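[Automated response] Your request has been received and processed.

Submitted sequence:
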Amino acid sequence: MGWTDGYGWMGFGWVVMILFWVLVIVGVIALVRWFGMRERGSGDTSRRTPLEILQERYARGEIERQEYEQKRRDLQQ
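Generated structure:
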C-alpha cells in the first residue's frame, strides 16, 4: 500500500472541496457586485452638467418652478 495507507490524494479531498466552495461563493459575490455597479453606473452623473441635473430634478417634480429659476440663474452666473 505504501505511505498513503490506500487513500492517495483522497486524504486532501476535503481541502479541495472547501477551496472549491470558497471559490464558488467568492465568484457569486463578485458577479453580484459587478452587476450592481453596472446598473448604478448607467446613470453616470459625472458626465452631466449641473444645469442638466437641475433640469432633470425640475422635470421629475422634485423642485418648484421658482426654485428652479433661482438655481438656474445662480448656475449661469
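Summary generated for your ticket: Helices lie at 13-41, 50-60, 65-76. The chain has a mean pLDDT of 83.
If you did not submit this request, please reply to this message.
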